[in-house]
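4.2 Preliminary Data

To establish feasibility before requesting continued support, the project team ran the inverse folding procedure on a target of 483 residues. The structure was first converted into the token representation described in Section 3, and no sequence information of any kind was made available to the design step. The complete token record follows.
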């Protein structure tokens, strides 16, 4: 609604608009947004003081416990800090004290928000802009919005993933560092021609989590023509639960796994053996990538021609996660004099190779001990070897060859071609080819590809190769190609 000349000025000065701000050089939307933001900052302090005075010192903890959906264990400080920015506006504009929901008895009135209580107590003394802000915000639900366009330092255009509407939001500081595809848990309010955030998550949810939100939307839509704000209020607990779970997943340290999906743990298993030649003869068949002659040609022999040292990679045909790779290295076995050293990267593979050694060598190999190395220690050792080792320098030199880069680019392209026909958990076990047959599925696949483009894991020409491979996937699936 446009402000008329004789209306009270939106800045809350108490004077008419024509005598206060009409004709000022600053654009009206930006002016109103600044006044609303200033009012919101002042009002937030007043509402917090009223909450402590009216409901008691324990009210904040009671409400935060409800916001976090009554966790069984005391949340870590990092979790409390992560959500506090989102919680505070919810506390003063959405939380309603219900004595039936808590064992802690508070002194404040039931069935009213802190903001509504403030407006009622202020009565005619209530500032005009405060009144409009409370009316627009109180009990308005949070939702999940996807950033479509971003103008750093000005604002962004978002699509509400649950309600479906698109909104241009004015937001100065919050628009810094936000990218198209990011998802925010927030509340957007409108006052006249200004849309602004009053409550927003302190972090952006990356696109790879969008399929979970689309499933939430489908669940809310079930049996309904459309989702409304009333529906969001009715299911605010379920919506907030999804947001909290996504936050846990986002900040949980990643679990690194090998090609079989086993958690990484680095084992070095030592055996005492009777005869290196006999051990080689009985173990070389584990390698499917090199012939016995090729393995023997790489061995070291003593002055009498007896085998002293040889490395045997235990390999298998195929790679569980990609058709582009021909083989998988499972275990490295090194015959070294009277010792057999086994290096393996998971507990499951460690148990498997122990059985193989027992079956093939029998009494000719006697288990001595196993050393288990932490992931952090293994990575540090690997980096140190790369920094100092000749092999690392040779590997870096090898990457300079166009033929090597071309081969790796072909492998990357092959990985992405295979991806289109893999059953993806994030797509509900469907392949991307099948998922794109529905509108919701297309959105899910688009989000996964956008996330992949952000995190290619490569640099230089290999990054360009992966981005080109993803663009080819988009075209093949009939999706829009990112510029």
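Position-by-position output of the design step:
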């Amino acid at each position: 609604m446009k402000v008329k000349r004789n209306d009270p000025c939106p800045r809350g000065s108490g004077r008419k608009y024509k005598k206060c701000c009409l004709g000022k050089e600053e654009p009206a939307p930006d002016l109103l947004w600044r006044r609303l933001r200033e009012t919101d900052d002042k009002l937030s302090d007043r509402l917090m003081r009223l909450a402590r005075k009216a409901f008691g010192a324990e009210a904040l903890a009671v409400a935060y416990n409800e916001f976090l959906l009554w966790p069984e264990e005391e949340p870590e400080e990092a979790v409390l800090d992560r959500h506090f920015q989102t919680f505070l506006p919810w506390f003063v504009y959405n939380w309603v004290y219900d004595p039936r929901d808590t064992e802690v008895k508070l002194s404040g009135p039931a069935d009213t928000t802190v903001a509504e209580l403030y407006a009622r107590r202020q009565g005619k003394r209530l500032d005009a802009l405060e009144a409009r802000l409370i009316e627009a915000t109180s009990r308005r639900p949070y939702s999940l919005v996807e950033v479509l366009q971003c103008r750093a330092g000005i604002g962004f255009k978002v699509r509400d993933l649950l309600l479906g509407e698109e909104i241009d939001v004015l937001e100065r500081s919050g628009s810094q560092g936000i990218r198209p595809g990011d998802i925010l848990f927030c509340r957007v309010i409108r006052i006249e021609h200004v849309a602004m955030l009053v409550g927003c998550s302190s972090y952006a949810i990356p696109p790879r989590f969008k399929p979970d939100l689309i499933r939430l939307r489908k669940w809310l839509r079930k049996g309904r023509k459309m989702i409304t704000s009333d529906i969001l209020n009715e299911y605010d607990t379920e919506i907030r639960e999804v947001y909290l779970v996504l936050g846990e997943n986002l900040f949980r340290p990643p679990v690194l796994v090998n090609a079989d999906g086993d958690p990484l743990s680095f084992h070095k298993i030592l055996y005492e053996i009777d005869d290196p030649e006999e051990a080689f003869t009985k173990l070389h068949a584990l390698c499917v990538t090199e012939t016995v002659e090729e393995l023997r040609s790489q061995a070291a022999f003593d002055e009498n021609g007896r085998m002293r040292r040889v490395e045997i990679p235990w390999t298998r045909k195929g790679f569980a996660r990609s058709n582009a790779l021909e083989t998988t290295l499972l275990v490295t076995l090194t015959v070294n004099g009277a010792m057999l050293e086994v290096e393996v990267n998971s507990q499951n593979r460690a148990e498997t190779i122990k059985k193989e050694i027992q079956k093939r060598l029998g009494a000719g190999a006697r288990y001595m001990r196993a050393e288990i190395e932490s992931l952090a220690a293994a990575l540090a050792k690997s980096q140190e070897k790369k920094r100092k080792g000749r092999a690392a320098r040779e590997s870096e030199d090898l990457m300079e060859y166009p033929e090597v880069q071309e081969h790796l680019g072909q492998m990357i392209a092959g990985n992405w071609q295979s991806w289109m026909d893999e059953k993806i958990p994030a797509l509900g076990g469907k392949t991307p080819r099948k998922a794109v047959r529905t509108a919701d599925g297309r959105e899910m696949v688009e989000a996964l590809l956008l996330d992949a483009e952000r995190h290619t894991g490569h640099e230089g020409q290999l990054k360009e190769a992966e981005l080109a491979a993803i663009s080819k996937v988009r075209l093949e699936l009939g999706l829009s190609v990112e510029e």
